[in-house]
Design a protein that fits this description.
CATH superfamily of the largest domain: RNA polymerase sigma factor, region 2, helix turn helix motif
Order of helices and strands: HHHHHHHHH
Strand content: under 5%
Number of helices: 9
Helix content: 55-70%
Structural class: mainly alpha
CATH architecture of the largest domain: Orthogonal Bundle
Length: about 200
């Protein structure tokens, strides 16, 4: 599946295995009691995806690294007050998203969700040994997708990227964006419809 297909395919609805949320809840509870090893396991599990998430938000590698680290520091200090059992990932992502928004506002720049695919790309984004033609086609697909995403309003772009790139289930996206699952279902559908309409008009 191409990267753009993840955004355009309305049948793609990610689901999170319940055992993953249970694992997070167990380690978050231990970390809240001061278990630094449990917290380090949470860091190891979530840091690659959180860094990618921040990179998509900010479009800058150093900023993404800084916000990722800061988000874990803030989470560590806030864990003694954490009482959202089973929802650690959206809680952590919300911390990161708020910091990304703050950073974007402080620089008087708009929040950008651009596909900065490098070593953090999903495994199927680029084949192991792409031909020059395949590489060129892939880059053209990403450039086109980035232009389309930039035209979406933030309230549609954010849930679509969280769903299509980060593969988060809609109930977690709702928790991150402080809304309802039904609202996320509607926003992702509207975002895909707009993106598909724009895509079909491109040469």
């Amino acid at each position: 599946m191409t990267v753009s297909a993840r955004f355009l395919d309305s049948s793609s609805v990610p689901l999170a295995p319940p055992e993953e949320a249970a694992w997070d809840a167990l380690h978050a509870a231990a970390a809240a009691r001061g278990d630094s090893l449990a917290f380090q396991r949470l860091v190891n599990r979530h840091s690659p995806a959180l860094h990618r998430f921040c990179l998509h938000c900010l479009g800058n590698l150093q900023d993404a690294e800084d916000v990722t680290q800061e988000s874990f520091v803030r989470a560590w200090h806030a864990l003694p007050r954490y009482r959202e059992s089973g929802t650690f990932r959206p809680w952590l992502w919300r911390i990161a998203l708020n910091r990304c928004r703050d950073l974007a506002r402080s620089r008087s720049s708009r929040l950008r969700w651009l596909c900065n695919w490098s070593s953090d790309s999903p495994p199927d984004a680029i084949s192991p040994s792409p031909s020059p033609d395949e590489t060129a086609a892939h880059r053209a697909d990403l450039d086109r997708l980035s232009r389309g995403l930039a035209l979406l309003p933030e309230n549609l772009r954010e849930p679509l990227v969280l769903s299509a790139i980060e593969n988060l289930p809609h109930h977690e996206i709702a928790a991150i964006l402080n809304t309802t699952t039904r609202a996320i279902d509607n926003r992702v559908q509207r975002a895909r419809h707009r993106l598909n309409s724009w895509w079909s008009l491109q040469p």
